[in-house]
Amino acid sequence: MEGFAHQLVAGIATGGIYASVALALVMIYQATHHVNFAQGEMATFSTYLAWAAVQAGAPWWVALLGTALASFAIGVAIERVLMRPMRDAPVLAVVGVFIGLMLFFNSITGWIFGYTVKPFPSPFETSAPLLGGLVSGHELGSTAVTLAVLALVWAFFRHTSLGLAMRAAAFNPVSARLVGIRVGWMLALGWGLAAAIGAVAGVMVAPVVFLEPNMMLGVLLYAFAGALLGGIDNPAGAVAGGFLVGVIENLAGVYLVGTELKLTLALVIIVGVLLLRPSGLFGRPVVSRV
Amino acid sequence: MRGRPPVSAAQDRPAVAAAEPQAPAVVPRRRSRGISLALFLLGAAVLVAPAFLLSSFRLFQLTLAAGYAVAILGLNLVTGYNGQISLGHGAFYAVGAYATAILMAHFDWPFWATLPVAAVVSGTLGYAIGFPALRLGGLYLALTTFSLALAVPQLLKHKAVEEWTGGVQGLFIVKPDPPSFLPIEADQWLYLTTLAIAALLFLLARNLVRGRIGRAMMAVRDHPVAAEAVGMDLAAVKTRTFAASAVLTGLAGSLGAVAVEFVAPDSFTLMLSITLFVGMVVGGVASIGGAVFGGLFIVFVPNLAESISKAAPGAIYGVLLILLLFVLPGGAAGLWRRALERRWRRDGGG
């Protein structure tokens, strides 16, 4: 029973990371109806930036904050330079650009930092067992950080006028423009926010999976599964889906399929959702007007 | 809720035009039958000649490129002509490769006999994946195939199938011997066989695309609402196209496996699927001939690039993909088409 409880807690900790990436995906999806396949690789690159900062002697929290800001800038720049001209392009071209970005970030990460697997320091490591050994220091710390990020994002969208403007721009760009919201910049801000959230998730997962250029591929896949499970047009649902997928992954990994088939589990979840409940647990059914 | 009305894909327009009957206008004079025959023989000679001129390593690369060309052709069928984005065609390539390798290694089947099995197995998998994903919008197929591509190496390594797949070690097979009456080497024979099979599949795909089914595929891509209004079953067209495309890519996997004489899970990662996608865009989306260029590209360019750095192929792919989509969305085929049109205009306009 204690093993089960431990797996549950560990599942919530990784679920928080999936939830963050799922939220980043959904934010861009809501505004553009595209899923950013490069989200994971962008986060990996950001994590390496944080690693480099820590190696250079920066305090951990400063590195995290600096990386989030840098990633925000990178995200805004990508939207302005690459995605904006693709506004009216066919879906295939947009997906092609995402794949191009993914390849680009993956290879420059390898090029600059090398392909050897690196350990990543965690500031939450404690030697004393917490809650009777139920949870590790890093699990507790990273869950706290992801929850704080999610709460911040929620508060930003719910309680600030900029957040309201961004929601309006995503929900109804034409009317938003008519009331004076600069829709293009709201999109760029969304990209920046998504990149920053991804960066924090990357830094949180790096001590667990270790640092290497492909480390976010699995995370991205689970985030897809989480977003679909929760409903890809519903940010809160996607977050819930991310946590759920984290728990399912950990429990199934121990009791059902073993660790070798963890990625296949994501495929099973995705196909299962598409077969049984395509709009996800909390999403609205897709209705198209003819 | 659809984000915006289906924008007729700018890069697809020339391709659609080329598939329509007025396309021959590009080449204004009707060629006489004699010239056609001469051109055909010349083309065949150009394709066959490498078998007797090149070193066995170059020939191996060409054989591999022919296989990849078929794989890209398969991807092009569903993504180019039907507008459904697949990021996991490497999975079907893997299934075809393993079907051939397992039958040859464990059951001593001859190579040619494994091809129908590879086609059936990959087609079935294609149908099974396409069925849930294609009832919904295009995005879902991209997500599902992406996760399929990530899952395949794990599945091939799994204990339950290790006895058949050879696990991480993979399987070794031997390329077929040439018939005794032909005075050629095994790699020359394999090149010629691969070429013949690839040519046949290209011909089939071309006829499929130019016929009624091809029109249905493009109608579903360009205007799903209208296609549905005239009574097409969108999901059925898309799922069948996806299955047909999986068959082509699975056969390509068989050709690739016997060329390399070895299959292992780590040759069929997500990177393979992405490479096929890059090859399709570079060659030309919705272009039959572009697939040949794409196949050559993904064999020879990484080879050159790897001499610079391990990261170079990925970086080149990434940058090239983005650049192409911005400045030349039609790929190599688009460039070729544009050149032909310009020549025609100059000739015709005086």
Radius of gyration of chain A: 19 Å
The CATH architecture assignment of chain A turns out to be: Orthogonal Bundle
Strand proportion of chain B, as a percent range, falls in under 5%
The biggest beta sheet of chain A, please?
none
For the terminal residues of chain B, how far apart are their CA atoms? 51 Å
Largest interface: A-B, 54 and 58 residues
Which key terms come to mind for this protein?
heterodimer; A: 290 residues; mainly alpha; ABC transporter involved in vitamin B12 uptake, BtuC; 11 helices; B: 350 residues; 1% strand; globular; disordered N terminus
Topology (SSEs and partners):
The complex is a heterodimer of chains A (290) and B (350).
Chain A: H1 2-32, H2 39-55, H3 60-83, H4 91-113, H5 137-159, H6 161-171, H7 173-178, H8 183-209, H9 216-230, H10 235-255, H11 262-276
Helix pairs in contact in A: 1-5, 1-8, 1-9, 1-10, 2-3, 2-4, 2-8, 2-9, 3-8, 5-6, 5-8, 6-8, 9-10, 9-11, 10-11
Chain B: H1 13-19, H2 33-48, H3 50-53, H4 56-81, H5 89-107, H6 111-134, H7 138-157, H8 159-165, E1 171-172, H9 186-210, H10 212-222, H11 224-229, H12 234-260, E2 262-263, H13 270-283, H14 288-305, H15 312-327, H16 331-349
Antiparallel strand pairs in B: 1-2
Helix pairs in contact in B: 4-9, 4-12, 4-13, 4-14, 5-6, 5-7, 5-12, 6-7, 6-12, 9-10, 9-12, 10-12, 13-14, 13-15, 13-16, 14-15
Please explain how this structure is put together.
By secondary structure, chain A is mainly α. Chain A has one domain (2-276): ABC transporter involved in vitamin B12 uptake, BtuC, CATH 1.10.3470. Chain A has 11 helices and no strands. In chain A, helix 5 packs across helix 6 (161-171), helix 6 crosses helix 8 (183-209) and helix 9 (216-230) packs across helix 10. The longest helix of chain A has 31 residues, at 2-32. Chain B is mainly alpha-helical. Chain B contains 16 helices and 2 strands. In chain B, helix 10 (212-222) crosses helix 12 and helix 13 (270-283) packs across helix 14. Chain B is globular. Mean pLDDT of chain B is 86; it is low at 1-26. Chains A and B meet through helix 4, helix 9 and helix 11 of A and helix 6, helix 7, helix 13 and helix 15 of B.
